Amino acid sequence: MDVTDLASRIASGDRRALARAITLVESQRADHREQALALLNDLARHPRQALRIGLSGTPGVGKSTFIETFGLMLVGLGLRVAVLAVDPSSARSGGSILGDKTRMERLSREPRAFIRPSPSQTHLGGVARRTREAVALCEAAGFDVILIETVGVGQSETVVAQLCDLFLLLLAPAGGDELQGVKRGIMEMADLILVNKADGDLKPAAMRTVSDYAGALRLLRRRPQDPEGFPKALPVSALEDTGLAPAWTEMQTLIGWRRDHGHFARRRAEQARHWFEEEVRQGLLAVLTRPGPVRETMARLGDAVTQGTLTPEAAAAELLAQL
Amino acid sequence: MDVTDLASRIASGDRRALARAITLVESQRADHREQALALLNDLARHPRQALRIGLSGTPGVGKSTFIETFGLMLVGLGLRVAVLAVDPSSARSGGSILGDKTRMERLSREPRAFIRPSPSQTHLGGVARRTREAVALCEAAGFDVILIETVGVGQSETVVAQLCDLFLLLLAPAGGDELQGVKRGIMEMADLILVNKADGDLKPAAMRTVSDYAGALRLLRRRPQDPEGFPKALPVSALEDTGLAPAWTEMQTLIGWRRDHGHFARRRAEQARHWFEEEVRQGLLAVLTRPGPVRETMARLGDAVTQGTLTPEAAAAELLAQL
After folding, report:
1. Locate the AAA+ ATPase domain: which residues (chains A, B) (predicted)?
2. What torsion, rounded to 10 degrees, do the Cα atoms A218, A219, A220, A226 define?
3. How far, in Å, CA of A190 to CA of A84, rounded?
């Protein structure tokens, strides 16, 4: 594969080249990995910056419809939009979110849009690296906005928060009692809470939910990276395409403020350090899983531990002494 | 400290010695660590086995009341009960679940009960090790049942599932729409789902919730470690002490079956291997955080990454080449 050629095709906005490059960074093969790093290095020489928006929401809140409507709106404004997914659960289920492009049929037909489903992965570290590199590739391809979708479970929000400039939490209308159903940690990450399905019969419930969350957000300490009044809760209807334009205006206000006050650049710098350290950790741990004497010793000691002839602590001490 | 003396006091059931030993395994000091390992090794020579029960539930479902009532019931049956907590969020909040023993005032006054709050910890790896070692100490102290409580967030359930023989999920009564609020992964871990607050006005809602979850559980594939009919959903009222005796009977049935079919021993063996591997991983990563040249290089490269003069990947490759 000619990496330089692939790089220039990506830089010129060729979506097929981009798709191929993402497949390359997803590959576990050593020669592919080498090519992927060469490609990323090549593209890093001419950096471009997209607005990276993370989007979290549990199944059923209407994430796909939201992404479709929001994406089409951005495309209509002349922007190029890429959609990526982080789904560590796909390792277990074998499935993937975004797996079915028909979920976003209209957006996927747009020449200015690019949708990439989440691959099956074996561990969150792999998911994180793959997504981070896919983000870099989409930026190099000149996209203006990158939407990074995740399901509302466990660690995946943390990964997305470390990848994005702006974090959206999408919710469905609910009764007041369910307020605590949203994990506190996720609410603390959110820059905007969007209550979807503010249409038809559900509109009153949606407005109540917005006001409940607005109240809850006021109880949280103001973060240094937020101007007065943020984070906000807003009603939207992805189905009827209402509220999305105001939400986009709020996002631009927030990001503009963060750029002006240095928070945007600082966050990206901190994220880069985080990913460097994470990459080091993963690289260090790789010695345990790579074929070789260490992996063999680990398997042998592991057998002794399961047979009860060695405690986990003693076995670990023995292996670590050898490393 | 005389480790042999401490070990024999623990083995004789001295609760103060046990509390002191848990403080020892929680300590970060190198000399304490050495003593802790010697103590665990000493105690491992005369292994005892408790039934380890994991308990998860989001705030507000009545976990403390449940533990108090359930613990008192077990104590009334002549059993010795220890209660531990896994709370990785305490690192951020500075607080801790179980922090306030007055939450379980009656149980904490029982001579046959032992309650240990969760300490503040900096990372989940530390929480897991500390809890695992505290479990080992409680077993050595001759407790019959160890309850390991966790809040329903993120990775802590995974830690608890790797520590317990039986996993309980405690829920509050809810409307049918909220069914999906429980993370699928947690439901798949649960051996028994207990719907609390099946009393007073909430009783009808609790019974509906039980039947909703019973239906949902039937949709999940039967796991090899379960006899026919498990996992089950049952109503309980910790407040009125109803349903707890039947729940305990179900737990004994399940555990008896697993013992008879080899699943109990196999699970413990797999858990031991898991903790051995986890201990190796943590030990390997410690080189990055221990004071020394590696940590210094990491800090220097991290600065270059945040300043944008080096990509995360290139910096990681440089550090890894050095290791």
Report:
1. 49-221
2. 20
3. 18
pLDDT at B156: 78
| CATH code assigned at B30 | 1.20.5.170
Contacts of A311 in chain B (CB under 8 A): 40-41, 44, 272
* Interchain contact, A272 vs B184, CB within 8 Å: no
DSSP lists the bridge partners of residue B114 as: B82
DSSP-assigned letter for residue A237: B
Q: Which domain covers residue B116, as residue numbers?
A: 47-260
Q: Which residues of A touch B301 (CB under 8 A)?
A: 276
For the beta sheet containing A192-195, the strands, ordered from the edge strand earlier in sequence to the opposite edge, are A113-115, A81-86, A145-151, A51-57, A166-171, A192-195, A232-235
> Mind listing the pLDDT tens digit for each residue in A112-143?
999 998 765 555 556 788 889 999 999 999 99
Q: Which amino acid, A132?
A: R
Three-class secondary structure of residue B74 per DSSP: helix
Which segments of chain B are extended strands (E)?
51-57, 81-86, 113-115, 145-151, 166-171, 192-195, 232-235
Whole-angstrom distance, CA of residue A88 vs CA of residue A92: 8
Phi, psi of A148 (to 5 degrees): -115, 110
Q: What digits encode the pLDDT tens for the residues B247-304? A: 999 999 999 999 999 999 999 999 999 999 999 999 999 989 989 999 999 999 999 9
Domain identity same for B32 and B72:
no
Q: Which residues, in sequence order, are bridge partners of residue B170?
A: B194
Same domain, A11 and A130: no
CATH at residue B117: 3.40.50.300
Mutate to test the interface with B, among A280, A295, A318 (most CBs of B within 10 A): A280
How many domains does chain B contain in total? Answer: 3
The helix or strand, by DSSP H or E, that contains position A106, with its residue range, turns out to be: helix A105-108
User: What ipTM does the predicted assembly reach?
Assistant: 0.79
B-chain residues near A131 (CB < 8 A): none
